Amino acid sequence: MGAYAREPLAAASRNVSPPPPVPAVTPAPPPKPTMTAVEMGARQREISVSEFFTKNRHLLGFDNPRKALLTCVKEAVDNALDACEEAGILPDVVVKLEPVANGGPPPPASQATRFRITVADNGPGIVRQQIPPIFAKLLYGSKFHRLRMSRGQQGIGISAAGMYGQLTTGKPVRIISRTNARAPAHYFEVQIDTKKNEPLILEKKQIDWESPRGTQVTMEVEGRYQKGRASVDEYVEQTIIANPHVKMTYVTPEGETKEFRRTYEQLPASPREIKPHPYGIELGMLLKMLQDTKSHWLSGFLSGDFSRVSPRLAEDICKAASLSPRARPRDVHGQAAENLYKGIQATKIMAPPTNCLSPIGEKAILAGLYQQIKGEFYTAVTRPPAVYRGNPFVIEAGLAYGKGPEPAPESQAKKEISLAEGEAAENDHELARVIRYANRVPLLYQQSACVSYKSVLDTTWRNYGVAQSRGAVPSGPMVIFVHMASVWVPFTSESKEAIAEYDEIRKEITLALRECGRRLGAFLRRRERAHSEFRRRNIFELYIEEVVASCNRLKGGKLATAKLKDQLQKMAMKRTGGEKTDELLGQNGSGPEGLPHSIIVTPEGVEGEVPAPVADAATAGAPNGVAKTNGGPPPSGAGDGAKGARRSGRKGTTKARAKARPTARKRR
Amino acid sequence: MAQKQRTATAVEKKLIGVADVVIHAAERRKDPTLTIPVRSLSNVTFNDRKGLIEMGKRKQARSFFNVGMAKKFMQTVLVADALCELQRANLTTSLREIYYRTKHTIKNSHENTIDTQDESDPLIEDLEVTLTALREELHVRAENAGSIVGPLVLVDDGDRVDCARLGKGGYSVPSIVEPEYLQIRQCTADFLLLVEKGTQWNRLSEDKFWRRYNCVLLTGNGQPPRGVRRLARRLHEEKKLPVYVLVDNDPWGYYIYSVIKQGSINLAFESQRMAIPKAKFVGLSSADPEAYELPRNVGIKLNDKDVARAKELLGYTWFQKKSWQAEIKRMLASGLKYELDALANKDFQYLTKKYLPRKLKEQDWLD
């Protein structure tokens, strides 16, 4: 073949160049193989997950020291909260960050490059045998194989954090855990064997521990502490917003202790575990399930291993796939499996059950927002469950608007400064802040890649009386809260920073945001109406003074000013509705009736579903509900935080408490 | 001066009238309202016979007890007050000073009476039209933004100014040139040349063009200010000087010419005293690049704004003469505009030595 092919080519070249070349040029010898298949085969070897992630740590959120510090805290806190909630314990979590000296005295927090992270909880504790693999084996966990809503999913997080610490500082992860007051506390020092992805136990012993129950994990990692966006501080604050049932003590690297009290005394309803929904699985997954099932018949497999498939529906699916319901699942492969897959898609199946989800709930979101963010208007919306790719999910949205009623003396002082040219409308350039959550965990990075953020951009906020420039978040003093609760949150990467864009998810978020927007619009309109009559009268009164003074000067100071002023004022009164307006203004800022799940804050007081313990915090001058004890020794154990008893009482507190303490969790 | 303070001037009386409007309305329990003629294109007409833009009869009411107008009403009264103060003290001032004089923070609030000068300037124009008083009569002056040179003797504040002996720089035209402030003692020139650009005026002045052709050279550095326009009008009227206008070849140049000739839309009420309906347009015409063989590469491409403005000009009633329609359409067709400065491409003194002499000889101008 080769020779034939070469013939005409050679002839062609001869035509071009008149004198024929004497001998055919011998082609260059093919390159000699430098390695044989056997040699190459010898180089092939398995890569352990740990090795893979050592090299690709950015996939898990350890790209830079600042983010790494946050990721470590986040993984430890997520685990603590998941454990407490699963065990039905109201979580008490202590987070402590300490700068570590690299020889010499410890540097100031902003300069430090190494930190010791300690996270302690009052959870159920961990049995002795499980401690090493949980903290020092990647992809080991209780959550991956279950379809149940939880913060963690894959079993990578905490061991990856430990691995990162080991990599950057060489220090092992230290764990103390105790399962109950009578059991001993176990102390472990573990490292990960990255080649084998197996734990190495450096030390284990029983110790005395002041906490009766719980787990404490300590890691030393390379990191950078910097306040502001996507900082540990922000993470803690946002966690509290979405988890008002958590009591958190946060000791910053600067030695400041921040106490976040529990504002919602109810644990979120424990989510159920569900079986996968047939619409949610792919062919490969189906094949694996066919192999692994314990059922003997195909129909039994379908109805037993999936949710929402009744025996009768299973028969229908088999019929649609032209397979026998009595076929052995293990024998279904190849074309038959593909037919089965198509059959599933062609059959109408009920949406998956939604009791596997545990949304935060409107009341709790309100409590969280109200506690953490100063504002004038709060609202929250929990959407009914929906489904994407067979996974049920719930979208919740919330909104805090305004700067909060200003303390009276401050606003007085402000009035006395007159404004210079160009100074007038300066304060309205602030943009709204979007805070995003997935299964109650704040998402701090990759905002613009996240479907929540995109939905905020796509909502026409101008319809609700909020300014918004094209392709931007709305402007104004506003915090927008978006939460997605699902058995499987579709993240765009392993580091869980942004939610992928599914039409169903986007639609739900948009609907929730619109509802929030409508309520905000109603609030703003109402406030505007009450103020506009007042302003009308007000401007006339202000301007009358000026006009009368000018007229007097024009008339050479010989005018009966009092008379003119009186005449004009009477007319102003008549034209702005007189006594009626007075009445209207008396009942300033009509209450939140008609605005469900909302809180309105006015200088006179708070109306709406105010969470109880916050009510007394608001008056005590710490608007964030954060008690600050500078430099004080942090509470050592998780069990005994300082009780929020230093708050002074407040008028009407008891009433508010009685009203706000929910008797039953809001059911959808 | 003390005499004046006692017997109020006519303008002062008009300003006090604003206060009377408020007082009388208040006594009758009526909303105090000022009636202000509308200053916009929709309220001007072109008087073909007189060759002037005249203000129409449409008026707008500005009432105090109207939320949208209350502030403006208050500001108008305030400005009237400040203008009256000027009359009584017999001082002149600038627009900017009026703004500062009237600005203060309203008692018991953090609101200013006037926030920027953009708010006070139109109010002064409003008062000018409402009270039919000229800005000069209101003692408000603009900057001295014009120069004049030529065989001309003026008297300013009692000082004799011989404009033929002021070197290259000439005399800086004040913004108020009414006979009581500035007298024209003597003028032997044959015509007046009004140049848009200061740079080209400098060229002509340096080359002593005025001496050779016995003319007065005047510039307003762009859109000529009122002082320059008024002085040109006075020379035209009192000394019978024909007026020629030399501007860039672009829509803005055309409009400057039309303002000199027919008056502006905004100040249509002053056309009577400002406009020079017999003024002629000598250049730069869109026909000149070809006639004077200017290379195409010294032109500038018309941008979208230029084109839009040119199309607007085509629609104005005072640009309906055939010659003008042709002139503007020729520019649009070429897609280029030319600056006066572009003549320097041929020679630094091309304007003085070739262009203007030929134009004047050929009487090549538009009316």
Strand order of the largest sheet of chain B: 10-7-13-12-14-15
Number of strands of chain B: 17
Low-confidence stretches of chain B: 1-5
CATH topology name of the largest domain in chain B, in short, is Dna Topoisomerase Vi A Subunit, Chain: A, domain 2
> Could you name the CATH class of the largest domain in chain A?
Alpha Beta
- The strand line-up of the biggest sheet of chain A is 5-4-3-6-2-1-7-8-17
Give the class of chain B from helix and strand content and strand pairing.
alpha/beta
Count up the domains of chain B: 2
CATH class of the largest domain in chain B: Alpha Beta
Largest sheet of chain B: 6 strands, mixed
In short:
Chain A is α+β, with helices and mostly antiparallel strands. In chain A, 36% of the residues lie in helices and 17% in strands. Chain B is of the alpha/beta class and 367 residues long.
Question: Main attributes?
Answer:
heterodimer; A: 668 residues; alpha+beta; Heat Shock Protein 90; Helicase, Ruva Protein, domain 3; Ribosomal Protein S5, domain 2; 3 domains; nine-stranded mixed sheet; eight-stranded mixed sheet; 17 strands; B: 367 residues; 2 domains; six-stranded mixed sheet; three-stranded antiparallel sheet; 17% strand; disordered N terminus
Describe this entry's structure for a reader.
The complex is a heterodimer of chains A (668) and B (367). Chain A is of the alpha+beta class and 668 residues long. Helix content of chain A is 36%, strand content 17%. Chain A is built from 19 helices and 17 strands. In chain A, the strands form 2 sheets. In chain A, strands 5-4-3-6-2-1-7-8-17 form a 9-stranded mixed sheet. In chain A, strands 9, 10, 11, 12, 13, 14, 15 and 16 form an 8-stranded mixed sheet that branches. The longest helix of chain A is centred in the last third of the chain and has 52 residues, at 503-554. Chain A starts with a helix and ends in an 8-residue tail after the last helix. Chain B folds into 2 domains: 2-31 and 66-141, Winged helix-like DNA-binding domain superfamily/Winged helix DNA-binding domain (Arc Repressor Mutant, subunit A); 147-362, 3-Layer(aba) Sandwich (Dna Topoisomerase Vi A Subunit, Chain: A, domain 2). In chain B, 42% of the residues lie in helices and 17% in strands. Chain B has helices spanning 2-6, 10-27, 67-89, 95-102, 117-131, 198-206, 209-213, 226-238, 251-262, 271-274, 288-291, 304-315, 322-334, 350-362; strands at 33-37, 44-47, 52-55, 59-63, 93-94, 140-141, 147-149, 152-156, 159-162, 171-172, 182-187, 191-195, 215-219, 243-246, 280-283, 300-301, 336-337. In chain B, a hairpin with a 4-residue loop joins strand 2 and strand 3. The longest helix of chain B has 23 residues, at 67-89. The relative contact order of chain B is 0.10. Classes of the chains: A alpha+beta (668), B alpha/beta (367). The interface between A and B is medium-sized, with 29 and 36 residues.
